[in-house]
## 1
Amino acid sequence: MTLRIAIVITCYNYEKYVGGAIESALGQTRPADEIIVLDDGSTDNSASVISGYGGRISPIFQSNGGYKEAINRGFRETSSDIVLFLDADDALHPTALEKVEKAWCPGLAKVQFDLDIIDGEGRRLGRRFANFARDIPCRTVAASFRTTGTYRWPVTSGNAHARQFLEQVMPLTPPVGHDGVLNTIAPLFGGVFTIGEALGAYRLHGRNMSMTDARGAFKRHPDFSRQISFRRREFDMLREHARAKSFPLPDGNLLDNELVFVNYRLMSRKIGQAYEGQESDSVPRLWWRGLRLAMAESSWRAVLANGAWLTLLALAPRRLASAMVALRFNRAAFFRAARERADRALALFGLRPHRVLP
């Protein structure tokens, strides 16, 4: 059977980036069968950029209904067997659809893949999301899910979903973005195959949802309290779907099984930010839990890096911990500024740097 693949791009005030997302969708070595670009009432020049692609895409212009409704409508407009939701500030590498189709097999809920992390100007930052070391077969993800209620997954743009999965759960009203809920519940509806290479790019800039507070203001680090609350609601939705399917999930707090959220809780305690469920946490408990999760990382480099971070953070006084947290989430900008200062200092002596800045 020939598979049909759709790319749904949702945009709100991303005139700077949406053209790049569309170009990446059009530039696939395996052409998309549908490219739907939904502008959710942008007030900048996004609509004009989108209109410039004419009949090469299927544009939709609607009044602002919010990100959740944009995703729900975008899916309603598709008819393909596989659907990728591409954020307008992200992009796909040219072979993304080709490699997704090659990996696809009956019974999958989704294929997921890594994303190169880039900055607002498109420069690679030398990191990946979610940093998969290799291809991961469905049975490995299923085993992790049965044991822990979770598994490692990428953000929205790193997933290709089966229509048969989406039709069972959409439309969704998630606590934040669709990706958290869709990724969380996917193993209940089919296999999850992981391609261990980057097939797209995830852009970090001042307007990422994860780096804003409830009022939309940019912060130097995620609003941990808000993100923890969102994740708890996503696990509530997982338990609802699991009960409907008579799937036994592990008891206890499933956040204890995700290194990211053990980290968020430890960082919250160290900087003095209150969060839901903190009464059952302590710095030593979170440190130990984080170390145990870090030991399951795919490389010794990751094990050592996570272990060192958790230990230094647990021991740091509040002021130092706050500085460490801010640096962790802004290190690309920090190191770029440091290199630029060093280059200016070298220039004073008539010297030139012997490196290429990212």
## 2
Amino acid sequence: MLKRSAPIVVGLGAIAYVSAVTQRSSMGVASLVASDRFHTNAQQLASLAVVQIIAYAVMQVPVGLLLDRFGSRRLLAFGAIAMGVGQYVVAFSSVLPEAALGRFLVGFGDAFTFISMIRLINGWYHGRRASQLQQWLGNAGQLGQVVSAVPFAFLLHLSGWQKAFTVWATIALIIGVVSFLVIRDEPNPESVHRPASLKESFALLRQSVGFASTRMAFWTHFSTQSTVTVLVLLWGVPFLEEGEGLPKNLALAMLSSTVFIGVGAGICYGFICSHLPQFRRRTILSVVLLMLGSWAFLLSWPGHAPAWAIWITIVCTAIASPSSMIAFDYSRQYIPKRQLGASNGFINIGGFVASLTMMYLVGLFLDLHHGLVAGTGEALYSIDGFRISLCCIFAVVGFGLWRYVVNEAATTE
């Protein structure tokens, strides 16, 4: 009976994660509609994404501590319900601050989902099977972006803002209720040893961060997940359209392709983690160096690069991104299960820190370059400006890769 229950329980956790990614990315699809609805400019509209990301990041470690204390079932249900409430607020909002509050709640609820799913997998599966499922389900969850880009966008166009967000909010609430009723944290809950208090959870987190293996996983996530996030969430469209001069449809197709490329690559990483774990280090080094090499090739191209050269960089960047899930295979191997939630919350911050750092540096150097060439008529989003500003990829990712190597060596001593 328990073996038959495992696919149902973990499958529901995966559905909750796909839903979370859909709720997370829904505003990107609705951004132009939101601009008209709230009569706002681009900078003000960006606040909807900023508050959502901040809520997600700030909650990672607290959610991890709560996860070790209360388990996946309660947190998956609570996160889905919080996202549903947030989407209802967005649906009926008439001014920007109301919508920002709704998106804050979406980011808040989203923070409960991913690491709860990872913990759920490790509660029901072990060994190779757990490694595979972590990789496959973690990357397959990104298909939620496709759900928001197709059925949600269609409903938004067909029925309008209020109905589209109301339907998606209702889906989140249903998933939350079903998760609470169906999911069990472990096949034998009575055998689970949880921290006696949040104070003990904090102590266990401090202990985990002291492990070189935890820091190795953190820098794995830092080095691999950030570049594609920066492109998809902020700088990809300006770079491809304004900088490289590509048609909008081609630029969007390139960015959208990262989801499908990532899912395919994730299947390969799942096989490596489950059957050839001794190659995890080589995999991380290979895909990160390949990505950095592709960016060096693209940014050194004189003038506008041909589409095939840009595709090479997009593919290499997309391949590197899902290797971030290897970080959670490291934590599964080295960190005791009772403190896995808080540790994974800490590890999951790595990519966020790198992404925000890179986003800020790209903008900073674009502005500095534009100031230096003021009076020449060169646009803010020029290819020369991006050629300089995107060099921060080498600094940020290179630093993370160095720290990964140092901590990996300390782990294997």
## 3
Amino acid sequence: MRYAIVSDLHANLAAWKTVLADIADMRVDKIICLGDVAGYGPNPVEVLESVYRVVQDTLMGNHDAAVCGKLNPDTFSPRAKAAVLRHRELISQTGMDWLKSLPLMCDAPGFRCSHGDFSNPAGFRYIIDPEDALPSWKATQEQLLFVGHSHLAGIYVIGDSGAPHFVDPCDFELESGKRYIVNPGSVGYPRVGECRSTYCVFDDETKTVTFRQLPFDSDGYRKALKEAGLGDDPWLQQNGTQRRVPWLRDRLSFAKTSAAGQHDQDLHEHARIDLQSSKSHRTPLLILLALAVCAALAAGAYAVRARREAARAAYAVTIPDFDLSSLNAYPLAPPDKNLLPTLPATLSSGARMEGWRYAFDDRTKQSFSAALRDGALLLSVRNAGPYRVRLESPLINLAGTQLHALRLRGRIRKPGVFSGTVFYQLVTYTTESDGTLALGSTHSFEVRDNKRKAPIPTGTLNRKIELGKTVSHVRFRIEASFDGTLEIEQPLLAGEPLKPAAAKEPSE
């Protein structure tokens, strides 16, 4: 039997339709949803109705629990809580009753499913680092487990060595002596990686897991978000997340009768063309002239629109406006040498930050400064409104280091009112035969607030990132979109020692 394992749909109808079409094409026998059908997105009713109709087994996620009243949404981020309250207004009592009836786990021949950690399913604990997977393996006997919740597609593996490790999404076959926890990623809220809808297919006869990654109509999703009053999603604002075919021509109406609400520009264009055409019966030269004018106007309008689109997608100011000289990681003093430049201890107003490259949406409303808090030097970023900011290191040349993995650590604070998201990213590059660099993968991690209450909301990140054999350069980057003040401690990027026991295991 072939199972489609989907998770974290988050009321994104555009993405769910795309995945459903692909599931049909994959000739799947049964669909299992790991939870979070609701939350975040603009179409909770439509997605819930569809899941109810076509999915054989649906589990309860933490957002589903919050919508139906089984979980207090006060622990959620402001955006997530707002969506929960909005969904409560839209979903009928019948829908609420169905959400309340959803189980926390389900069993199938040879594998088991949960939204989060298996040791305490009702606690909705995340499995992110390899060590997070250990309690779930202790609580279960099955060789194969499926979880969602983190939106991070990938595979957690443990073998005879007893050392768990994480593998990026790839198709694989179950091996004797190893156990697996597979996260299929998110259908409707893919806020990491390439921001595509992901799910996986498990074939219990061939014992294989296949990952599927699909683009969806992000423009339609953003339009639906706006109409629902939920605003834009931060992960859609990251570079490369919006995929659209460029316009070649201005829009024209091909309907016999213009519908109500037709754009004024289109109506004016049609009227002008009709007027020129009516006069051109007597003068063929005017026909050519009118067509030339129309073509010029269309080209001009397209150029203006293209420039506006580019201005919205790019940062308004980048300092410096050229790339910095690369840094050499070799010789490396493992494992405590920080490969990243030091953040400034002092930074006067308007001064350039040495060793880093950064970008603003609006420099008049955004600023950097150095701060000292609790004995730690901090880089303080102030946004007087919802703006984006990017901070990135130079390219780091890994030649001669023979590094297999890097450890990324970071800590941020949010003094005062803060609304938005912060992503730490590691971008990898490979060197082509002609010596040029080619972009590889972007490992993106959202730095969320710690669950412990503190006078100042604080978020920490500690991630091990496996490097492919062809990676020659890396770059660290912070992508943040927020309103308020963000304080950044010195980030650490260091070589991760290779454990001898892990080195004996074949790569997954």
